[in-house]
Amino acid sequence: MDGMMAVSSPTYGSSPMAFKRLALALLLTFAAAFAVSSAARAEPLRIVGFGDSLMAGYGLDAGQSFPEKLQAALQNKGHDVVIDNAGVSGDTSSGGLARLDWSVPDGTGLVILELGANDMLRGIAPDITRRNLDAMIAALRKRNIGVVLAGMRAAPNLGPDFAASFDPIYPDLAAKYEVPLYPFFLDGVAAQRDLQLEDGMHPNGKGIDVMVDRFLPTIEAELARMGGGA
Q: Known catalytic residue: 80?
């Protein structure tokens, strides 16, 4: 109208206050994104020790099982890992295959697969053990979960024929799936009475210490290859 000063409405981009609001919104967005990224990086690598009584810690006090002592050893060396104990005493490879999906939760990055000792002691045909372990590794790989295979060897009293069929299972599968192999889970403990429980089969606390010490180079090499856990 005549005699009145025309006042134009400022646009969103030209207002100093609007500019400050936009800058603040962008800053908050970037801060939130950074926080989420940092939180993701801060999550420890989740490892599952999946096996039988040798993994479960049969006959041992709390804190003395292989997964617990391995976790402590890795953390002491600066690795950001958490190891869940999914060992079940008496379990066979068939039992392990049946419970694999619910025993290894989503979010697991690595599985230490230790099964077959009870198959061997019960005289289960090595072909069955091989088939079950093969299926477990394939299922874990399909879920993008890494595997370290812990091997077992046939007891001498089972004879050379059984050993010839059983012992190659682990190196064969490790080569097939290109996963790390720890050849004998009881290395340094088998036949060592001072490192075993009275049953002469399961490791005592000192035996677990030996097993962890000997296993460390294998799992640390795998953690380095994965680029995480430290």
A: no
Alpha carbon dihedral 195, 201, 205, 207, in 10-degree steps, equals 40
In a domain, 2, yes or no: no
Based on the residue annotation, tell me whether 199 is a catalytic residue of this protein: yes
Give the predicted TM-score (pTM) of the model: 0.82
32 and 50 in a single domain? The answer is no
Would you state the pLDDT for residue 227?
Answer: 86
Which residue is listed with tokens 């970037």?
A: 30
Instruction: Please check whether residues 18 and 72 belong to one and the same domain.
Output: no
Q: How confident is the model at residue 107 (pLDDT cuts 50, 70, 90)?
A: very high
Q: Is 79 designated active site?
A: no
| 6 occurs within a structural domain | no
133: its two tokens: 């372990």
Q: Under DSSP, is residue 206 helix (H, G, I), strand (E, B) or coil?
A: helix
Q: Is the pLDDT reported for residue 22 higher than 90? A: no
Total domains in the chain come to 2
Q: Which of 93, 119, 202, 209 is catalytic?
A: 202
- pLDDT tens digits, residue range 61-74? 999 999 999 999 99
Do 183 and 209 have their domain in common?
yes
At 142, is the secondary structure helix, strand, or coil?
helix
What CATH number does residue 113 fall under? 3.40.50.1110
**Residue 194 predicted with pLDDT over 50:** yes
Print the domain residue range for 36: 11-42
Residues 133 and 149 in one domain: yes
DSSP 13-69: TT-HHHHHHHHHHHHHHHHHHHHHHHHHHHSPEEEEEEESHHHHTTT--TT-SHHHH
The active-site residue out of 106, 161, 194, 199 is: 199
